[in-house]
UniProtKB/TrEMBL annotation:
Zn(2+) binds at C44, D46, H97, C100. Its cofactor is Zn(2+). Pfam families: Pro_CA. InterPro entries: Carbonic_anhydrase, Carbonic_anhydrase_sf. One of its GO terms (molecular function) is carbonate dehydratase activity. It comes from the Bacteria. Keywords: Metal-binding, Zinc. Binds 1 zinc ion per subunit. It comes from Ramlibacter monticola. CDD domains: beta_CA_cladeD. The lineage of its organism: Bacteria, Pseudomonadati, Pseudomonadota, Betaproteobacteria, Burkholderiales. Belongs to the beta-class carbonic anhydrase family. This is Carbonic anhydrase.
Amino acid sequence: MANSTTDVLLGHNGRYAGGEAIHKPGHPGRQPIRPARRVAVLACMDARLDVEDLLGLQTGEAHIIRNAGGVVTEDALRSLIISHHLLDTQEFILIHHTRCGMLAFTDDLLKAGLEGDANSARVLAQATKRAFVSCGECAASPSAFHAFRGQPEPLDAPPDATNRERLAWDVRRGMSAILNHAWIPTEGPDAITVRGFVYDVDTGALQEVSYPGPIGPAG
């Protein structure tokens, strides 16, 4: 979409990666409840991402939703549906990033470690470089941790073709979950747009993920 808000924010990101600060940290005073740029961003909770800074957003311009991995979970969908239908956002942006912790485990491995499996705990400790303390108990919630598909790697591994592909897989899965949800319109006068990106924590730059495309092996 020409001259979209997402394109404007990508321009801001280029300036940010070049060392320019666009986000203004001061309190802006009273503002309306609806995001001024009519955009919602779903991003990972990683401490190295400051979404306002990397997109050049000001307070009041966007909804920012964060969780481990920037995954399109049921709760993220809940927020996006409310964001669009009640608060008039028209563009959704998904942001994953390099060196993500979601690349370092599988759901089954983490569950087994938490439940008390010694071998799983040892593998998790090796991956994270910290002592993994098992809880020794089973639990029904969360039902999934949404680890990224593919072979796990050490925590904070440098970017390469393999882990970038794994990140792109999950971005596309998230985009698909949004675009195929019955309550998120993609056609007509109330349609939203969705674009996904991988943020490089070492350079500060965003790289767009093409859609549709591969989403990785099941399981």
